[in-house]
Amino acid sequence: MKTLLKNIGCLQTPVGSCSHTGAAQGENVKYMNAAVVMEDGIISDILDGGRRPSGSFDAEYDAEGYLVTPGLVDGHTHLVFGGYRQHEVAMKLKGADYLDILRAGGGILDTVRKTREASKEELYIKSTAFLDEMLGMGVTAVEAKSGYGLDTKNEIKMLEVIKELNERHPLDVAATFMGPHAVPPEYEGRDDEYLGMVIEEMLPAVKEKGLAEFCDIFCEDSVFNAEQSRKYLTRAKEMGFSLKIHADEIEAIGGAELAGELGAISAEHLIAITESGQEALAAGGVTAMCLPATSFYLGKTFAPAGEMIEKGIPVAIASDFNPGSCPSLNLQFCINLGCLKYRMTPEEVLTAVTINPACGIGRGDVLGTVEPGKQADLVIWDAPDFEMVCYRFGSNMLKRVIKSGEMVAGYGKLR
Ligand code: NIG
Ligand code: FE
């Protein structure tokens, strides 16, 4: 199957298969009046300056002069969950803080109750609708974490849903096991015992069934401390998992330092990251997965993304979609926040939602740029340039999505 996307006003993309930082984070290539040739779902050629490729095509799509970029990669989500937590809005208005709600047995634990009650089928149907919505906003690959089961049976149930989503939905879905997301009620006050069970029972079960590539832990004040995180991540690494860590979201308790020391693929949140945390990420080559919509929703400060880029840390921007700290899957809003709150340039932001998160989920060789040999995941925007996408907020700026060479979502009059 040979397809052509022609009449692209501007094709903007980072290049390469590795994550970018420093000045390179802000380097994008812009092809004007371009066309992209795709064969069996893979990009085979790019032409610019109005040149037309030779030969015939099974399908021709017309970008009608609009902007085209790589498909967006959302590198951090808690996509699969039972119920919602809209009642927390009123609690927040009365002054309850995120960790207060969790300490009182609500928050994540509320979602754990509802996720345990939900059948696999219910979770699958609900998450499919989220993936459809993401695709309709330009996201073509996503990372999804477990962590609302908190017992072996329900963690496996969540990971099986994630596996099925990856197999059946057009989006690519990368799976992360996050058994240590909180201490479940039946282990209240016995966090070390719970973590021991995660290490002894859950990790081998997840490994044996091949249900996750990555392991993550919520390293946070009154959740899991740095020593507990070290123990869990070290074991996960020995077992062959790649490491991720929720670090320095609210308090800096050594999570970023640990990520650097253990060579994690990414450290996530980093709102409260310190100087030594930044040095560790830079030294360890760890991708900083920054989540600006969570800062916005929790009313917190914003991670020092610009400073991290200057220090040589590759910065990615993800949604953190989850029912508590960020009930939004709108990565376009994160693009706006990347410019407005992180003070990143549009080029740095595009890198942060394409190649950098692709590397942060171990897919830099196949995703994240528009180049020959990469998967043909493209977004046609209702915009002449990426600055327009950074500038307009609250609207869906998408025109169409091409996933693995096929037009799969969007609206408007494109043929
Ligand atoms: O990334 N911080 C921990 N986990 C999620 C929130 C989960 C929840 O509140 O349900 C996060 O913000
Ligand atoms: Fe998260």
Report what the structure shows:
With 415 residues, this protein is of the alpha/beta class. The protein is built from 16 helices and 17 strands. The chain has helices at 22-25, 88-93, 98-103, 108-117, 120-135, 152-168, 191-209, 226-238, 255-262, 275-284, 292-298, 305-310, 331-340, 346-352, 355-360, 386-391, and strands spanning 2-13, 29-39, 42-47, 59-62, 67-70, 72-74, 139-145, 172-177, 214-215, 218-219, 242-247, 266-269, 287-290, 315-317, 378-381, 398-403, 406-410. The strands form 2 sheets. Strands 6, 7, 8, 9, 10, 11, 12, 13 and 14 form a 9-stranded parallel beta sheet that branches. Strands 1, 2, 3, 4, 5, 15, 16 and 17 form an 8-stranded mixed beta sheet that branches. Helix 5 (120-135) packs across helix 6 (152-168) and helix 9 (255-262) runs parallel beside helix 10 (275-284). Residues 76, 78, 246, 320, 322 line the site of fe (iii) ion. Residues 76, 78, 246, 320, 322 line the site of fe (iii) ion (FE).
How would you sum up this structure in a few lines?
The protein is an alpha/beta fold and 415 residues long. It has 16 helices and 17 strands. The protein is globular.
How widely separated are the two ends? 18 Å
Mean pLDDT: 96
Major sheet characteristics? 9 strands, parallel
The radius of gyration computed from the alpha-carbon positions, rounded to a whole number of angstroms, is 21 Å
